[in-house]
């Protein structure tokens, strides 16, 4: 039908689809330039032990310092990078920077790096992780690889073999955003995971109903039984922290209440400050926001 109108394929698309395609093409070109001229930076968000109030690790969160658009968040470009085949290249940059910057932190603090499902299912992810550790000299035990459920779906045998090879390198593996997507409790026992990060929709995302809380406690206890470290993401208020503390099964917390993502230059002071007082004291001393 499109052909017969004499306007090629354009009729299959409305103008907004053409706009979207054009915008993506621009982002793709910009992403290549960003890789070539080092426009990617990492911010780090602390993850804090519930018991001791200490920072145990910091999650690397990618920021793109775009020459015209300013700081661009990953939500705006990771999906496009995946589609245009640039995500593994970006992933290697992130691994390298994160491991390098973490060598300047105290040894007790690990670094967590998000790895895209596409990069994870490619053929070089284990080599990429090993190379970053090698180049930077970071102890493998100080690297946590964060994966989402989508990385583990589809091909169980491939996922298991990649996870096993990563574990054998000595890095730890966290399952991110747990409870969203097609969560399967069987992941928890069939894969060599170390940590579960319960998605913030259960913590501060408006799913704090009694049923969701029951589910959250149940999942957290099950994970603990299986020997996994349980992290709650997205803690924004003292009330939420309190609820999590009373559940008893949450090992670590992360969220704006504790600290926002920030440049590596801020971490030394922050790590020291959290080491000096209990979690409640840390939270009480935070400026009201
Ligand atoms: P994520 O891995 O689940 O990271 C947590 C996200 O929640 C971060 O957003 C963080 O800034 C935000 N967050 C932390 N605490 C709170 C809170 O208390 N409340 C709320 N509302 N949000 C909070 P960000 O930095 O925009 O990253 C979004 C997502 O982009 C990440 O979700 C991750 O999936 C992806 N991402 C970030 N960096 C990378 C990367 O280097 N590589 C890949 N492949 N993906 C990345
Ligand atoms: Mg993450
Ligand atoms: Mg997460
Ligand atoms: Mg999340």
SSE blueprint:
Elements lengths: L14 H22 L3 E10 L5 E12 L3 E3 L5 H6 L3 H16 L7 E5 L2 H5 L3 H12 L6 E6 H4 L3 H14 L2 E7 L6 H6 L4 E4 L11 H16 L3 E4 L5 H10 L4 E2 L13 H9 L3 H7 L4
Parallel strand pairs: 2-4, 4-5, 5-6, 6-7, 7-8, 8-9
Antiparallel strand pairs: 1-2, 1-9, 2-3
Helix pairs in contact: 3-5, 5-7
Bound molecules: ligand C2E and magnesium ion (3 copies).
One magnesium ion binds next to loops.
Overview of the structural elements:
- This is Bifunctional diguanylate cyclase/phosphodiesterase.
- The protein has 289 residues and is of the alpha/beta class.
- 44% of the residues lie in helices and 18% in strands.
- Strands 1-2-4-5-6-7-8-9 form an eight-stranded mixed barrel, surrounded by five helices.
- Strand 6, helix 8 and strand 7 form a beta-alpha-beta unit.
- It is globular.
- Bound molecules: ligand C2E and magnesium ion (MG) (3 copies).
- One magnesium ion (MG) binds next to strand 6.
* CA radius of gyration: 21 Å
> What fraction of residues sit in β-strands?
15-25%
- Encode the helix/strand succession as letters: HEEEHHEHHEHHEHEHEHEHH
Q: What is the first-to-last residue Cα distance? A: 57 Å
Assembly context of the chains: single chain
Low-confidence stretches: 1-6
Our count of helices gives 12
> Which compounds are bound in this model?
ligand C2E, magnesium ion
Strand order of the largest sheet: 1-2-4-5-6-7-8-9
Major sheet attributes: 8 strands, mixed, barrel
Percent range of helical residues: 40-55%
Total number of strands: 9
**What is the general shape?**
globular
On the 0 to 100 scale, the average pLDDT is 90
Computed structural class: alpha/beta
């Amino acid at each position: 039908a499109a052909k017969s109108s004499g306007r090629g394929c354009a009729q299959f698309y409305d103008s907004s689809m053409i706009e979207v395609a054009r915008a993506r093409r621009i982002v793709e070109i910009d992403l290549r330039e960003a890789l070539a001229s080092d426009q990617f930076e990492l911010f780090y968000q602390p993850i804090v032990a519930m018991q001791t109030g200490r920072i145990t690790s910091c999650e690397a969160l990618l920021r793109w310092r775009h020459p015209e658009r300013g700081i661009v968040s990953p939500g705006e470009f990771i999906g496009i990078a995946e589609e245009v085949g640039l995500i593994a290249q970006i992933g290697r940059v992130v691994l390298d920077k994160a491991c390098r910057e973490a060598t300047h932190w105290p040894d007790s603090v690990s670094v967590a790096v998000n790895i895209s499902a596409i990069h994870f299912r490619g053929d070089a992810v284990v080599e990429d992780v090993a190379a970053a550790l090698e180049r930077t000299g970071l102890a493998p035990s100080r690297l946590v690889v964060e994966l989402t459920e989508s990385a583990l779906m589809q091909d169980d045998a491939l996922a298991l073999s990649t996870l096993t090879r990563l574990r054998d390198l000595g890095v730890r593996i966290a399952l991110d955003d747990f409870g969203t997507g097609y969560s399967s409790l069987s992941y928890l026992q069939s894969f060599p995971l170390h940590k579960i990060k319960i998605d913030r929709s259960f913590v501060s995302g408006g799913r704090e109903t009694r049923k969701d809380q029951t589910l959250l406690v149940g999942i957290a206890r099950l994970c603990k039984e299986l020997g996994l470290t349980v992290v709650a993401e997205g803690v924004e208020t003292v009330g939420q922290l309190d609820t999590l503390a009373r559940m008893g099964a949450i090992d670590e917390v992360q969220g704006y209440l504790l600290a926002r993502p920030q440049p590596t230059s801020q971490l030394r002071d922050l790590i020291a400050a959290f080491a000096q007082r209990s979690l409640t004291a840390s939270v009480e001393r935070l400026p009201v926001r």
